[in-house]
Amino acid sequence: MFLHKVVKWDITDQCNLRCLHCSVAARYFDGTKKIQCLSSDDRYRIAKALIDAKVKHVSILGGEPLLLGNELFDILGLLKSHSVSISLVTNGLLIDAQTMERILQLGPERLVFSMEGPEPKTHDQIRGKGNFARLTRIIKELKASISSRHSEISIHINTVVTRQNMISVPRMIPFVKALGADELSLLGLNCVGNASKNQDKLFLSVKEEVDLSRKIADVYSNGDNRQTLKLNINFIYPLVRDYLLVNEGRYLPFPQICCNAASSLTYINPWGDMHPCDRIFISNYDKHFQRARDVDKSISLTRTGFYDVWNSNYFLNTFAYVSDDQSYKSYNPCLRCDHFHNKKCNPCPLDALDLEEFPIESCLYVEKKVASRINTLIRKAQIIDQSMKTARINPGNAFEDRTRRASEDIRSFPSIPLDRHVPMMSQKGVRAAYLKAHDSHILIHPVSGESLFLDDNGFRLWQLMNERPQTIQEICNQHIEALSAKFDLEHTLEINGKIHDNIEIFMNTLIQKRFVLPAAGPV
Question: What is the CA radius of gyration of the chain?
């Protein structure tokens, strides 16, 4: 899970390139848009909104951010002065000596450059003639300056894997290492923007994808590559990685294929509107999550507070959809994959809005190869047990066993003293959703990103905090009374003490994890 909110901000819709696979081309560069660009004051207002919301990291993209010139550095300086970490994603072609000096003085945590291959022919056919030579020179100069100043700025290279550059992709590992970059990310294509118009030229077949992964694994294991270069593999799914590791002994880092829209990620478009992710906006999926009555409610950070948008039905509906396993029921083989149920992989769920069936061909291909080594049937109890230590309150025939298991689950949490008469209330901004397929509720903390899986009774306890501040004593009494109505008097008397104690253990966990806070404390 991500520890803090991450914001992707397309700070401008202007760009000095027109790449073949650009995801935003149709929205930004088609020449028909009539949306007024933000003023400098508007962008400054958005930056202030992010600071006030205590956002921890902002990734600045575009278009090409450096086209904003002085204004960009004023905004980045404002964010940095309030301890907001920054990634600057740029094609690098506008970096001259003066701009380089300003970047070094600013000190963003990450500089991210896009490169399509380790030689001019591959890179320039996608990004324009002569751009490879200019960009490699700029990166080398930047790296030399960073090293001489003992700066902590890290240089990252993004490569979008396509049919046009797949032969060259394995050679990106030694090339990027020789450049002095710290990290290489191999990214997959989304079928949006220019990529949707060039599918035959760009998208790999299943066999090409697996063969390429095999070659990348071989190169990455050579010499000290694994020790000296961080590699992110985001164009394959974990099952492909399993296949190479288990069947062939080839190592690749675990792919990061997870959707964190509306739980820790948010996206701001060039006109100041805030969306759960960039693809929802770019592909016009927002209409699926905004109810008719919410259409008129502003999602622009120039007029609306960050948390007003963050806690709107638009974002909450998106979160509930992304979190529910049933949103992936048309995906094959997701619902029988342990990586999916352990929350280590979940593909973008937006395709399910348009398609009744969505086979993930590469996973289906390798699933047969590793079927004997993966768990193909995940039961509800396994999902809950493996995902997070949870507190359960499940009175009934198996009450003794369940309370024992709950106490064991909580044992690893540090105990803190509880004043039974101090009013408590729920932490604001907690994400909550009901997972229909597994008959359980999930809570995700808005700051730590930690999750808890609860049954109906546990979820009701947490809900009590949302109704009004109450003491632990009041909560225990209310819940015991509610449970008492379900049992005969003898059974109620017999289990009252045990329920009472278990509720306190449960509340202790919620407080320790800061899902519940003292009413006078920070919210």
Answer: 25
pTM of the model: 0.72
* Identity of the amino acid at 62: G
- Look-up: residue for tokens 């929802």? 280
Parallel, antiparallel or unpaired: strands 274-275 and 265-268: antiparallel
* CA 81 to the chain's CA centroid: 25
Length of the chain: 523
| CA–CA separation, 414 and 198 (whole Å) | 55
Maximum CA extent, the chain: 84
The DSSP result for 252-306, as a single string, is -PPP-B---BTTTEEEE-TTSBEES-HHHHHTT-GGGTS-GGGTTS--BTTTS-H
Cα–Cα distance measured from residue 145 to residue 173, given in angstroms and rounded to the nearest whole number = 22
- Enumerate residues 6+ apart whose C-beta is below 8 A from 414: 512
Evaluate the CA torsion angle 275, 23, 55, 38 in order and state its sign. Answer: negative
The set of long-range contacts for 308-315, using a CB threshold of 8 Å and a minimum separation of 24, is 309/274, 310/53, 310/266, 310/274, 310/429, 311/429, 313/289, 314/276, 314/286, 314/289, 314/290, 315/262, 315/266, 315/276
Other C-beta atoms lying within 10 Å of the C-beta of residue 303: 11
| 270 φ/ψ angles, rounded to the nearest 5 degrees | -65, -15
pLDDT tens for 141-181 read 999 999 999 999 999 999 999 999 999 999 999 999 999 99
What is the amino acid identity at position 460?
R
**Of 297, 369, 363, 359, nearest in space to 330 by CA:** 359
Token pair listed for 166: 């797949």
Residue in this structure with the two tokens 């949490």, named with its chain if needed: 413
- pLDDT tens digits, residue range 345-400? 888 888 777 777 888 899 888 877 665 444 433 333 344 334 333 433 333 333 33
- DSSP for residue 342: T
DSSP lists the bridge partners of residue 510 as none
Q: Is residue 58 within 8 Å of 86, Cβ to Cβ?
A: yes
